[in-house]
Each structure stands twice: as C-alpha cells, then as structure tokens.
Amino acid sequence: QVQLVESGGGLVQPGGSLRLSCAASGFAFSIYWMNWVRQAPGKGLEWVSSINRGGSTNYADSVKGRFTISGRFTISGGDAKNTVYLQMNSLKPEDTALYYCSAYDYWGQGTQVTVSS
C-alpha cells in the first residue's frame, strides 16, 4: 500500500526556518520525481518544488533562494522508504499553508506551516 507521510510543520516567526520531511513507501516501481505542493487558506494548490532521482531540482519563483529540496530515492520493493526534505529559510507570512508531499498521483495528508509573529 502506497503511503506518503509528511512531518516537520509548525508555527514559526517571520524570518525563521523549518525543515519538512516526507517518507514515501509501498511503490511497486522506482519513484523518479517527488514534489512539494502547498495550499494556503482559501486558495488553490501551488506547486513549490520538485526533485528527481538524479538530483535535479526545480523551484517556484516564490520560494527560489529561500527553500531547498533534497531527497533520497530507493530501488522499488523492500521496506526502504524514499525520503524527501524541504528546508525552508527566511519564512514569510505568505508561506503559511498546508504543505503536501506527492509522487505521481499519490499524496500525503499534509503538514501545516504557519508563519506569524
């Protein structure tokens, strides 16, 4: 059974940092891309960042230079988990959102990030 589990969210002051983690397991094939997507209160989904098995990364303009994605991809099968991280620095109130990890059509339950003084 495919599972993506996010963690690391919380309340932080503007200018602060948080590190989100996502553990993905249960895939019958080797994952090639993993993504972070967020949804701010009352708004639609916004893609944040992606990383592939080769280490290539992409960022939305709104987070470029402040967020860093990293990850560890495993070969399919077994109990090993694919893991992706999102290091978020210089956080702004507009970064407040529910942050989701996704791979293909699979999504985690999200972890809440609130940036407020």
What features would you describe in this structure?
- The protein has 117 residues and is mostly beta strands.
- It is 0% helix and 52% strand.
- It has no helices and 11 strands.
- The chain has strands at residues 3-7, 10-12, 18-25, 33-39, 45-52, 57-59, 67-72, 82-88, 97-103, 106-107, 111-115.
- Strand 5 (45-52) and strand 6 form a beta hairpin.
- It is globular and about 45 Å long.
- The mean pLDDT is 93.
Reconstruct the topology from this structure.
Layout: E1 3-7, E2 10-12, E3 18-25, E4 33-39, E5 45-52, E6 57-59, E7 67-72, E8 82-88, E9 97-103, E10 106-107, E11 111-115
Parallel strand pairs: 2-11
Antiparallel strand pairs: 1-3, 3-8, 4-5, 4-9, 5-6, 7-8, 9-10, 9-11
Structure summarized in a few sentences:
It contains no helices and eleven strands.
Number of strands: 11
Question: Low-confidence segments, ≥5 residues, pLDDT <50?
Answer: none
> What is the helix fraction of residues, given as a range?
under 10%
Q: Would you tell me the overall average pLDDT? A: 93
Name its key features.
117 residues; mainly beta; seven-stranded mixed beta sheet; four-stranded antiparallel beta sheet; 52% strand
